[in-house]
Specification:
binds beta-D-glucopyranose, disordered N terminus, alpha/beta, 28 helices, elongated, seven-stranded mixed β-sheet, single chain
Length: 756
């Protein structure tokens, strides 16, 4: 047998890959109807075609068998088609034996293991049966007279070349295939590996499912979870592509893990239409079935030589050819099939290939100035841009205070960034009312509100005004006391305080032990304001605060004055580190992170910032968290929580790509990555999977348990109120105002801002 000796095929179809979009080569004029006119088969003529597994691919082969039988005027019992459930060499041998015993005219087989099948193929040939192969070649020197199918090596190479186009930067690629013995699987793999050699693409060891589609999916999932950044996947057999496609979709990696596969079954075409499959090498399996019957018939009626020349057999091979299909060429492929009258169950009605997207630039301002959070945002941008080559995202990283200043300036100029840090609430409402934000409600409600429903409703609500959404959260937490357990132990404090009095006692104890009790960064006056507003939350309760904020009550109500008095008691103990009035928020985190103070009042960002600010980049080894203590006689509950989260608002002129990117950022997989580095507390279902830090879990449970959750005062109220409150409370720390004056200043400000 000449097949493998003559590796230089006359390639009927040359597969050309041009730039990013491999070109389609339409099915050739070797179509069934273009071949010789039907020859009438002898009465006793019976041909058997044996395939490899139950699959639409093999149904297409069967369609070819049936079409040939019809054209040749054969009865249904004269053209028999058989496939085992999945790769099953024993079943193929057994079927051969059955038909040898029946003395059929010819058998065309796709040998799942050519070595194992050869003896029984020889037995058939010795019994005078015409033996040919299709789809997967036989061993070298086989009794098979012809192989009708794909040149698998060059087709595999075409798949590899498509992958090279898709991954110009290289990366790791998984390979899923249905056999470790069938030559078509092995040759495709070899061709693929040849094409990627020296390109920066590395292939993992192929995984074998033995033509079991369910197993193929399991394997694809496990390869992806072991290689979460997998750059590409190659599906060697017809169901491998769809298996990868499902795994890629489930992992949220559409466009990130590029997918090249084989064949053009309905699943695969759907994958191309959806954009999860980037290219496929379509075999011509209908022709394989048709020509197998036709060839055996010709040999039987006219003899081998005449048959070979009539069917243009070259070196014992009829290369049925392939078509490379990409989104750009799918419609042409369909038209070519239709022109040849080859049936297909799918169609492209109502589908259009994605047009070459125009370049878009997105400006993103965030305030995550420290690693690992800063690096993670950058990684996500890189990943998104790789998957969306037309989108360029420019990141501007700003320190919290600088961000607020710069944002105010650009807002005044009417040019907000496309995506920017937001805490939602009143400040965001002001921006929306000023026409600076984009209403993204329709994005959240698309696809049955899929994006909206992914969020914890309470967290999303912070970014809505009068039923319209202007941004989304990516983190939500609460403020509380972070403490250094080792310093507490050093001062013989065995458990954190649960009342304000206990807290003051602990401050005294710590001081007596020579330990600075509290770190503060009063240069950024909101840090100290949090202590006052938490006291107000405990003392005034929900109703008291909302009455003042909604102007049915007043900020001069006794509970607000009392908050100032309680804070003054604390300040009088001189609990803060030296220089706290001039220290920034980050310096406060550094003091705490360096173990130079026992406590700080801060939110969920504290663990990551204190470690980033610490000299050793590790921070407090034994970190603890406790809720703001109860204040004796207060109207609020111990479970009432104050805090907020972080989100992104969308600027008025942002392109749709900006919203799409934010959607990507808030997908459960990305949220999980944020949680895993303790850079934030997830707000979408599934994101909490990454939350392992025990303190972060405490914070998450804290805000989840709160019946009354109060957004930070300075973000809840209109922006003008924020600075009024911050400045007023700063007077207490500086020792320049009394509690009454603080309350009065806030009330005066409120009258001005609200006009009542
Ligand atoms: C292969 C066949 C295989 C089928 C499985 C095709 O790509 O050519 O050998 O049986 O996939 O679905």
């Amino acid at each position: 047998m000449k097949i493998l000796k003559h590796l230089i095929y006359v390639i009927l179809i040359t597969v050309l890959l041009v730039s990013c979009a491999p070109a389609t080569t339409a099915p050739e004029a070797t179509a069934p109807e273009a071949t010789a006119p039907p020859v009438e088969a002898p009465k006793e003529f019976t041909v058997v075609v044996i395939g490899k597994s139950v699959h639409p691919y093999w149904s297409n082969v069967e369609k070819g068998v049936i079409a040939a039988a019809e054209d040749l005027g054969l009865g249904a019992d004269q053209a028999i088609f058989f496939v085992p459930q999945q790769e099953d060499v024993a079943a193929q041998i057994e079927t051969m034996e059955t038909y040898i015993a029946q003395g059929v005219t010819g058998i065309a087989i796709a040998p799942s293991d050519p070595n194992a099948l050869e003896p029984v193929m020889k037995k058939a040939a010795d019994a005078g049966i015409i033996v040919t192969t299709l789809d997967t070649p036989p061993v070298e020197g086989s009794v098979s007279q012809e192989y009708i199918g794909t040149n698998n090596y060059s087709a595999g190479k075409a798949a590899g070349e498509a992958m090279v186009q898709l991954l110009p930067e290289g990366g790791t690629v998984g390979i899923g295939r249905g056999s470790d013995t069938a030559l078509n699987a092995l040759q495709r793999t070899d061709g693929f590996l040849e094409a990627i050699q020296g390109t920066g693409i590395e292939a993992l060891e192929p995984v074998n499912d033995q033509e079991d589609a369910a197993r193929a999916l399991e394997l694809a999932n496990s390869v992806l979870s072991a290689n979460p950044d997998l750059a590409g996947a190659f599906g060697v057999y017809a169901y491998n592509g769809p298996a990868w496609a499902t795994a890629i979709k489930e992992a949220g990696r559409v466009g990130l893990t590029r997918l090249v596969c084989f064949d053009a079954t309905t699943d695969i075409i759907n994958g191309i239409k959806e954009g999860v499959i980037d290219a496929t090498v379509a075999q011509r399996e209908f022709d394989m079935g048709y020509k197998s019957v036709q060839l055996i018939n010709l040999i039987a009626t006219k003899g081998a030589d005449a048959a070979m020349s009539e069917m243009a057999v070259v070196d014992g091979i009829i290369d049925t050819g392939v078509d490379i299909i990409t989104p750009a060429t799918l419609k042409d492929y369909e038209a070519a099939l239709d022109a040849k009258g080859i049936p297909h169950e799918w169609d492209t009605k109502g589908w259009e290939p994605p047009s070459e997207a125009a370049p878009v630039t997105v400006e993103w301002w965030h305030i995550t100035t420290q690693d690992p959070g800063k690096a993670l945002w950058q990684t996500m941008v890189d990943e998104y841009m790789a998957a969306h080559p037309n989108v360029k995202i420019n990141i501007t990283v700003l320190e919290n205070e600088a961000f607020k200043t710069k944002l105010t300036t650009v807002m005044q100029g009417g040019t907000p960034p496309d995506i920017f840090q937001s805490w939602g609430g009143g400040v965001m409402n002001d921006q929306a009312n000023a026409g600076m934000l984009q209403d993204i409600t329709s994005y959240l409600d698309a696809d049955g509100s899929a994006w909206r429903n992914s969020f914890a409703p309470g967290a999303l609500a912070v970014y809505a005004l009068e039923g319209k959404n202007y941004g989304v959260p990516w983190d939500m937490g609460m403020v509380g006391w972070w403490y250094n357990k080792d310093l507490f132990t050093q001062a013989n404090i065995t458990q954190p305080p649960t009342t304000w009095t206990e807290l003051l006692d602990d401050v005294k104890t710590l001081k007596a032990a020579g330990i600075t009790p509290i770190a503060l960064g009063e240069k950024d006056s909101w840090t100290g304001m949090h202590i006052w507003s938490y006291l107000a939350t405990r003392l005034c309760g929900k109703d008291g605060f909302l009455a003042a904020a909604n102007r049915t009550g007043a900020f001069t109500d006794p509970c607000f004055v009392e908050a100032g008095t309680k804070l003054q008691e604390l300040i009088a103990l001189e609990p803060f580190q030296p220089g706290f009035l001039g220290a920034s928020h980050d310096e406060m985190q550094g003091t705490f992170g360096n173990g130079k103070a026992a406590m700080e009042l801060s939110g969920q960002w504290a663990p990551s910032v204190e470690s980033a600010q610490a000299a050793d980049k590790v921070g407090v080894a034994n970190l603890g968290f406790f809720s703001f203590p109860a204040v004796e006689g207060g109207a609020g509950a111990l479970t009432d929580a104050m805090g907020g989260g972080n989100g992104f608002a969308i600027g008025k002129n942002a392109p749709p790509e900006a919203v799409d990117f934010v959607k990507y950022l808030t997908a459960p997989e990305q949220q999980s990555r944020v949680a895993a580095i303790a850079a934030g507390i997830p707000v979408v279902k599934g994101g909490e999977a990454g939350l392992t830090d025990p303190n972060m879990i405490l914070v998450q449970q804290g805000f989840a348990a709160a019946d009354y959750f109060q957004l930070y005062y300075d973000q809840y109220m209109p922006s003008a109120m924020g600075s009024i409150i911050n400045d007023a409370v700063a007077g207490l720390f500086a020792g320049t105002s009394t509690p009454e004056q603080v309350a009065q200043a806030i009330e005066d400000g409120a009258k001005q801002v609200f006009g009542k």
